[in-house]
Fold this protein.
Amino acid sequence: MSTRTEVVVIGAGYSGVLAANRLTQRDDVDVTLVNPRAEFVERIRLHQLVAGTHDAVVDLADVLAPRVRLVVDAVERIDVPGRALDLASGGRIGYDRLVYAVGSRAATPEVPGAAEHAHPIATVEDARRLRSLLHGATPGAPVVVVGAGPTGVETAAELGEQGHAVTLVCGKTVGPYLHPRVRDVVTDRLDGFGVTVLQGPGATVREVTPGGVHLADGRDLTSALTIWTAGFGVPDLARRSGLTTDDVGRLITDETLTSVDDDRIVAAGDSAAPSGTPFRMSCQAALPLGAIAADTVLARLAGRAPRTANVVFAGQCLSLGRTAGLFQLASLDDRSTRRFLGGGRAGAWLKEFVCASTVKELRHEARRPGQSKLHRLVTKDVRSRYLSPRAEAGLVS
């Protein structure tokens, strides 16, 4: 009888790569990572890929531990009773333990014409397509960016800085997460790049056409290229496989990230919904959640009780072109405050440091599994000392 344990990780985003590397701590664990491409995508740099200021990808071999076996394929279905994955290629991979880290993607827009005539920016393929379209556009052609979360703001700033005629359609407000004081800084910087910022009750999209965007208040915007950044969803793999999910499709887990259907399955990152209440979609949450997911698997293999998922948020980091950026500081329960760092070149340096540090963290965990600084961060039981929405809901002890 084999004494080895087969652990399979689905998805090579921030959570999946971190979890796969961390699982190699045990010599009796074989780790397989399944991903549709052999590249690690720096999701937080996709706006740079569109603008041509960064490739936003790293060879997975550069960030994976040597003991992690990479299978370049897509998972079509999880056979939960049979503990196996059915692959798009027709193959099948068995597992003893499974880490579900499929990440997130652009939500299908419900606005008429948006799916046909607007372009998402949630995947590397999306960003490369947009880069090609932008390169082929007539100089000075109007570009409309819909959605004013981090992706929308960063994309508008990046393109505005390069001289493109950009209009940012925000809906109610630019940067919904940001404190009003910080929001003003962002708006001023966008204005300095010549970006037209439309916000308020009427600044929602009613329809997208091949050559324009129609707003709820009756305004018509001419657009040679419409970029859609409003809303994220998750792949429906868990739902298709008969696992319990929330309305968006995230896998429902307990507070140790263990599936409520099967304790051999744990989730991490954007596709996890601990107690039905997910953390904010971000690499800031994805990395520690990947660490916790791996630690949950390892704890169970060692016969120990796994720990709960406590993630400490610091805020939100935004690039505002290549020459500016800022870090919105937050309370430990992820509420924005009036404090921020940067705003100019110091903020741009800080944002670049954060982006580079995520890849450095993955490489560090590949070389020294279990030694990541994230381990010290997530084991601090901060939430027991601060009221948060999850604590108030009784989801964190």
